[in-house]
Amino acid sequence: MIWTVTISAKARKGIIKLPESARKALALLMADMEAGGPVRGDWPNYGKLAKQRHHCHIRKGRPTYVAVWEELADGIRLIEVTYVGSHEKAPY
Q: Residue 87 needs a FRET pair 20 to 30 A away by CA distance; which of 3, 55, 56, 59 works?
């Protein structure tokens, strides 16, 4: 069951500002989502924000970096990463 994972324009801007370790963690997260879907309970501080909106930490410490993603439609295996950046500015 393969999922398609896309990145929004806002998230792309956030990725540019990430340290290398956080970028690598995001790449691993996206690979996990492609293989297993949007529910990632095996990632640190994973949480479901709304019915089809999720988040988790991609790097702990100060600052903590998070990723937020959404399932775009029921029945279609499409996920969009909508935010990548510091925990303080995350759109919860």
A: 3
